Fold these 2 entries.
Entry 1:
Amino acid sequence: MKLAGKTHSQTDEILRSVLDAAAERNREQLKFLLHPYWHWSAEGGAVSLRGRTNVLRWLAEHQTPLASPERVELRGGQIYRWIG
């Protein structure tokens, strides 16, 4: 599988880094790994947000851990779309 020019293993590596950084609440690392215009959806599309700052704020306010997505899209080596 290829996503935005990356192989499946490269995508998995980036995703694993994001999940680790989120678990550690490492905001600086997340800024590096997540695209500024990040599109994030969860709960079957019931929650859908755009923008890295908005998503990270929502996750913090709702004390919601970042769960593994069903699908991701990369742009420039950063996660651009996250469908959970």
Entry 2:
Amino acid sequence: MRYDTRLVKVEKDFTIKIPKEFCTALGINCDDFLNGKVVNKRLVFALKFRVRGEDILSKHGEKMMNEALDDIKEGRIEKV
């Protein structure tokens, strides 16, 4: 598949919005996690994993998710 190049703006908080047609073509949905890296001065993302309502996480994944939720509840996470 080939898609035309699209201009993507980097927001003040460094958020990058991926065009909907790219997400649709790649099967990327809201709340999916991507791996990102720089390759030859290009930013490259690949789908890492999906978190859906009834997906089953590994024991390590459950531990990490619970720790993250606890951090949020306890106010240990701050907006940058």
